[in-house]
UniProtKB/TrEMBL annotation:
Keyword terms of this UniProt record: Amino-acid transport, ATP-binding, Cell membrane, Membrane, Nucleotide-binding, Transport
Protein's UniProt name: Amino acid ABC transporter, ATP-binding protein
SMART domains: AAA
Source species of the chain: Lentzea cavernae
Coiled-coil residues: none
Statement: the UniProt record of this protein carries the keyword Cell membrane: yes
A GO term, aspect molecular function: ATP binding
Length: 240
């Protein structure tokens, strides 16, 4: 469903992704771990074409992201076509990114039919908060609205960038419950998180990134309990 092949990304002279390749099957849940600054957010942002790659390519369900091939050459898609492509890719940010002047329901209805907006608000257990504004919701509830909004376009994949990092500890559980539920229902997901317990329980595969490369990957038991690389061991010894 997601194919990332040989992706390089630099900001000026800083090479942040140094040849990243990653395939995610339909229905698979991949958790990305790694130290701060290792390129996790940049990787997610390139998948959504929020960042353009310098080398390599990305496809979602076989469709090239951000470009069209014509006459053996790549042409960048127009903004309108990129926006259309992004509907296939749900993105959940660390800081919720809700519109403060819109209610929970209106935030979702910005991107979907009203009936779908209600359906997905119900799915995250917040139908009783439909008319509440973000400031009237807890951080956990705001993030659940953001997840409902990400689902409401019925994307093929959903990307989560540290979805619980901005939450008070007592609110983390309700958001992880929603993610767990999505994972069980067969949603194709890539989740950047430091919640190791969640990763162990929910991930089909864990990918460990450091310094712009994927250092190792495998099933949770393998990567968490028997890491092969010194850098993975060093990271885990700090977070476990
Ligand atoms: P992570 O999510 O793993 O913490 P990031 O992908 O956010 O890592 O960042 C990787 C590196 O790229 C960091 O050194 C960061 O400062 C740098 N970086 C990220 N975005 C930009 C940008 N827009 N311009 C310049 N440098 C950036
Ligand atoms: Mg990040």
């Amino acid at each position: 469903m997601i194919e990332v092949l040989g992706v390089h990304k630099s900001f000026g002279s800083l090479e942040v992704l140094r040849g990243v390749s990653l395939n995610v099957a339909a229905g698979e849940v991949v958790v990305v771990l790694g130290p701060s600054g290792s390129g996790k957010s940049t990787l997610l942002r390139t998948i959504n074409h929020l960042e353009k790659v310098n080398r390599g390519y990305i496809t979602i369900d076989g469709e090239l992201i951000g470009y069209r091939r014509r006459g053996g050459k790549l042409h960048e898609l127009k903004e309108r076509e990129i926006l259309k492509q992004r509907k296939d890719i749900g993105f959940v940010f660390q800081n919720f990114n809700l519109f403060p002047h819109l209610t929970a329901l209106e935030n979702i209805a910005e991107v979907a039919e009203l009936s779908d907006a209600r359906h997905f608000l119900e799915r995250v257990g917040l139908v009783d908060k439909a008319s509440a504004y973000p400031r009237q919701l807890s951080g956990g509830q705001q993030q659940r609205v953001a997840i409902a909004r990400a689902l409401a376009t019925r994307p093929k994949v959903v990307l989560f960038d540290e979805p619980t990092s901005a939450l008070d500890p007592e609110l983390v559980g309700e958001v992880l419950d929603v993610l767990r539920d999505l994972a069980r229902s067969g949603t194709t997901m890539v989740v950047v998180t430091h919640e190791i317990g969640f990763a162990r329980e929910v991930a089909d595969r864990i990918v460990f990134m450091d310094d712009g490369v994927i250092v190792e990957e495998g099933p949770p038991e393998q990567v968490l309990d028997h890491p092969v690389h010194e850098r993975t061991r060093a990271f885990l010894s700090k977070v476990l």
